[in-house]
Amino acid sequence: MTRHQISGSVLALLGLATFIITPFQVNLSASGIFPRIISVCLFVMGVAVVLTSSKQEKKSNVSLSDPLLLIFLALILGTIIAIRTIGFYPSILVSLPLCLILFGERNFKKIIFFSLVTTGIIYSIIDVLLGSMLP
Amino acid sequence: MTALLDNAMIGMGLLLQWEVLFSAAGGVFVGLMMGAIPGLSDIIAICLLVPFTFYLNPIAGIAMLMGLSKGANFGGSIPAILFNIPGTPQAVITAFDGYPLAKQGKAGKALKVALFSSCIADSVSDCVLFFFAAPVAMAAIMIGPAEHAAVVIFALTLISITAETGPLVGLLSMVLGLLLSCIGADPLSGAPRLTFGSDELAGGMDIVPLALGFFVISEIIWQVCLEKKEGINLAALRIDELEEKKALEENYEEDHSLSFSEFKKCVPAIGRGTMIGSAIGALPGIGTTVASYLSYMATKRASKNPERFGKGAIEGIAAAEAGNNAVNGPNLIPLITLGIPGNLAAALILGAFTMQGLTPGPMFMEQQAPLLYALFIVLFISNFFALGFGIVCIRYMRKMVSLPKNYIYAAVVIFALIGSYIVRNNTFDLYYTLGFSVIGLLCRKGGIPMIPLLISYILGSSLELKIRQTMDLNAGDLTVFLTEPISGAFLAASVLVIVYTVYRKIRMQKTGSV
Amino acid sequence: MKKLFLVLFLVLGISINCNAYPDRPVKVIVPYNAGGSLDSMTRIIVEYMKQELGKPIIISNHPGASGTIGVNAFLKTKADGYTVLVFPTSSFVTPVFQGGKAIDVNQFKPIGAFIKSERILFARTDASYKTFDELLAYARKNPGKLKFGSGGSTDTAYVFKYILKKENLDVNVTLFNGGAPAAAAIMGGHVDLIEGGNGSPGDVAAMAGKLIPLAILSSGKLTKYPDLKTPYEMGYEYASSVMFGFFMHSDAPDEAQKVFSATLQTVLQKEELKAKFASRGVEPKFYNGEELAKSIDLGMKVGKLYEILGQ
Predict the structure, then answer these.
(1) Per DSSP, what are the bridge partners of residue C212?
(2) From the candidate CATH numbers 2.60.40.10, 3.20.20.70, 3.40.190.150, 1.10.1200.10, the one assigned to the domain spanning C24-117+240-309
(3) Chain B residues close to A114, C-beta within 8 Å
């Protein structure tokens, strides 16, 4: 299966699912017409792509189950949750170093220095401009 | 014509005040900086500064915002070229040929092409604005809901069909974008739709968090993982060491400067980009990204060696930058004459007008002609500010390729999160950023082109709105789209594009070339 | 002596604790984009109120979902009188037209309004009808030919639909999401009728003679169009009412409400402020909390039209 075929089938299924779910997710029936038409189109295009995809293919080197990728996404999710609960500045102070470590930096002094300076710059600019972000 | 000159003279008087020129220059500078930081874009800059225009006189305020747009249009191409991370959504296309050039150690050359193309295209299109605003205004009014919908369909068709993965996959991407645009609110009544009961989702997805997640964060993750696979240690990495290069020092000056003959090669691309950008700018609701993309595609098609594109062809950079900058000036036309913004920046600038008590709309040009012409002249002058600041910036920016990537990536991620929040003061938007990062990764993995998705997402709600308004006004009669002349023309053009592309594909298969 | 000191101390203590409102910055939540008409008018008013109150007033934009995102953000804040919502009264009932429930008015305390936006029905100058009655006659003779678009006020559109139903007329109706698209559509000949607020692009065009005002579809009269009748005067029971006003939580301290309301009233009498609004074609006027509440009620009444008329 070429990657286009995989994408095509996933999206065709998505189209089908949307078509079925839409009536339950609208308050006014007129709202649902366009999404349903589009989901039908998606289904059709998905199937078309599956059927016509040619064999030749670039393979990409990145795997979606790469642990680095998953950790990074988890880190962003964690940062967002932190932002929503404890605010921007503490969250940035914690996640910047974590990001840097994730990207391979090992020198702790540099990490801490960079994080503090960056957070400081952000704070001064945002406070100078307008109302602060989340306290 | 004499009326034009009269207004221009009065306009000159209005504009030659320190406040105006200072605001314009300041706007360009800030825009350049904001655009150059991926994670912050011109939209964010404009959002933040619109409230300040309250305190400035109208021309100064609007000139500042337009300056932000101009500066950011070039500024966004800086990180796009240097790191393949666009600083603004419209810089995505500049990265196609910009980043490969940077990898070859020729970042300075790429940046200069981008700067000169941007400024020339912007200046020419500002002249277009100056001379054609009034006549185009009269024509612009003929674009009603039906015609607008047809134009959008035409633009979407063009973009999907020309996707590099082939028309079918391009259309698939486009349809997916349309589907995603349905989540949130029904554009006609505002009723919540596909929100799965969440109040937050009913607010719809703002384009900024979306673009940031989709292009910026997913790009960073992708690059990080790609390099890990290829066994490169990011901490020690400089961008210009990615490709083998001999005698870096010898060719330094040549690699980083732009010779006149190279510039001459770009002129047709710039010309094409300016025309396409101006045309698209004059139509409401299409936008800079579309213009940039179509301009790039047009130049690629017209080139004798299209295979050079994507590997560092300077004409590609020129076309992309000319396309996106040429939109700015003419974009004011639908804004001023109809009160309908042509892209996101224009929508915010509309707010700045109303804040000053000016009501853009069909009467605006008649009643405020001197002010508007003053504004147009300031816009033209701002291009020189952009040129000046740009040249200075480039000198420093190209040194940035020598900075360690991991610091830049980490900072960009944080800026992206900040930028996503600031537009609507809403932390929930950060989830959109994350969500679209995941979608971006899936697209890269699954071979789905990202630009048709982005553009159809942007245009989706206005397409649906216009179609439904047309149907409401014509009691559900769909043939109106074909019988109205302008609408019919654009729909016919869409069909022609599809037919032509299919024809070319069949011909290419017959002659054996793949 | 000790007692005297005690009493003095208590009195001082109480007066220090009961610092006059406001003793810190006040936040105003605007549930729409920066630069929109509500936002820009609020900014003008806040500029002057800042000077009167002596404390900063910060405006925070929370756009989205026809204003409900901003309203929800407001409801999550503390009911201490330091966060205020600015909102159009017609928007309380908007969710009804979207198939949902109206925003619960009991959560809010109306403080005072600064603008009453009257909604006017406009037609093109090249139309064969020049008055409202002529329009009705034309529509009767030409069913299905006329096209109407609202200029951003859904409840006004429903009032118009009600009139059409009562008069048994067939006119195509759609919604535009603002005064500008509506004005552009009518000037371009894509619709025959629009409704627009006082001071909207359509009104600007009418004042320049490019459009004809036919009637008022909201509840108040306009001095600049003395011949235009409101729905009540024309015999219809429904009229829209759009007022822009400030709201606090229903259990916010009384002192906060009184001070804010009084300051608003003071500020709205300043000539400078009136001039700034005049350049936009609107007259600001102070309406107190009760009038504001009445405006919401009128809107809720129009909401019932949704059940009668459907989508």
Answers:
(1) C123
(2) 3.40.190.150
(3) 407, 410
